[in-house]
Amino acid sequence: MKGLSLWSGIIALLIGLFLFIHPFTTTAMIGWIIAIIIFLSGFTSLFMYSSSVNRSLWYLLQGILSIVFGIILLSSSVMSLSSAVMTIAAYWILISGILRLIGGFQMKKAGFFDANRFLSSAVLAILLGLFLLFNPTLSAIFVGRLAGLLLMAVGVSGISFSFKL
C-alpha cells in the first residue's frame, strides 16, 4: 500500500509538472478526444443511414460532415486544437449564461427569493464566456496550468500520505 501510494504520487507529480510546463497539451488532449468522438459519430450516422428503411439525407450529410470535421480536428496542430476547444467551451458557457439570465428574470418576475443569486451567477457565466471567447490562447494556458497544478497537488498528497503509512 505504501509503495503504491508513493509511486502513484510520483507519477501524478511528474505528469502535473509536464502539464504545467506544456499547458496546451491538456486542452489539445480534450480536443483530440472530442475529435475522435465526432469522427466515430460520423460513422454511426452513416451506419444509421445505410441500415434504415427510410433513408434520410440528413443522416448521410451528418455522417459525411462529421467524418470530415473529425479528420480536420485530428490533423490540427496542438495550438489550433487548444483554441478550438476554448472557443467551443466559451460558446457553451456564454449560451448557458444567457439562458440562465433569462431564467433568472422569469424567477424574479414570479417572486422567487433566490432570483438575485441566479442572476448574478448568470452574469458571471456571461463574463467568463466572453473572456474565453476573446482570449482562447490565454484561456488554454490557464486551463492547462490549472490541470498541472491540480495533478501536482494530488501527487504531493499521495507522496506525503505514503510517508505517514
UniProtKB/TrEMBL annotation:
TM spans (from-to): 7-24, 30-50, 57-78, 84-103, 115-134, 140-163
UniProt key word Calcium: no
Top-level taxon of the source organism: Bacteria
GO-annotated cellular components: plasma membrane
Entry keyword set: Membrane, Transmembrane, Transmembrane helix
The protein's name: Membrane protein
Organism: Streptococcus equinus JB1
